[in-house]
Design goal:
Helix content: 25-40%
CATH architecture: 2-Layer Sandwich
Shape: globular
Radius of gyration: 15 Å
CATH superfamily: 7,8-Dihydro-6-hydroxymethylpterin-pyrophosphokinase HPPK
Structural class: alpha+beta
Strand content: 15-25%
Number of helices: 4
Distance between the termini: 33 Å
CATH class: Alpha Beta
Number of domains: 1
Number of strands: 8
């Protein structure tokens, strides 16, 4: 079963926080099979905050249910200093379970697919890099189609570390 998790950070060492998020996923037993590039993105909703770095991780999950997966992601966030004081405000790390195969959930704890996935260019761009032909379970559109059709016009640019020789 393939699942996709978005990672975001706009406080402290943003790139380091993303790497710590990936490390945390490995440490809890997730098989991280692929990572997108890192993108620098404008904040959405709460605009008065620093720019984000965002990426998407592809996981191969067989041992964990969607609920167990989300619980582990929330523990990783907490361990890395995430505190939910301002809704959609600045954060050291944000780990969102976007998709878990074609599973659908609508509970107080978990919504699958992620309810705003199709409205967020900062999620769709790295997700399309990994899974452009993945069909959204409820919208019946590919990730690439959702990216092309999104009304979100926020800036999403591939990030290069300062001093990078790439």
């Amino acid at each position: 079963m393939l699942a996709y998790v978005s990672l975001g950070s706009n406080l402290g060492d943003r790139a380091g926080n993303l790497l710590l998020g990936v490390r945390g996923m490995l440490d809890v037993g997730f098989a991280v099979t692929r990572l997108s590039a890192i993108y620098e993105t404008e904040p959405v909703d709460v605009l008065d905050q620093p720019l984000f770095l965002n990426m998407v991780a592809e996981l191969r999950l067989g041992l964990f249910s969607p609920e167990q997966t989300l619980a582990r992601l929330l523990r990783i966030e907490y361990a890395l200093g995430r505190r939910r004081e301002i809704l959609r405000g600045p954060r050291t790390i944000d780990l969102d379970l976007l998709l878990y195969g074609d599973e659908q959930r609508e509970t107080d704890f978990l919504q699958l697919p992620h309810p705003r996935l199709h409205e967020r260019r900062f999620v769709l761009t790295p997700l399309a890099e990994l899974a452009p032909d993945f069909v959204h379970p409820t919208l019946q559109r590919t990730v690439q189609q959702l990216l092309e059709e999104t009304s979100d016009e926020s800036r999403v640019e591939r990030w290069k570390a300062k001093g990078s020789w790439q």
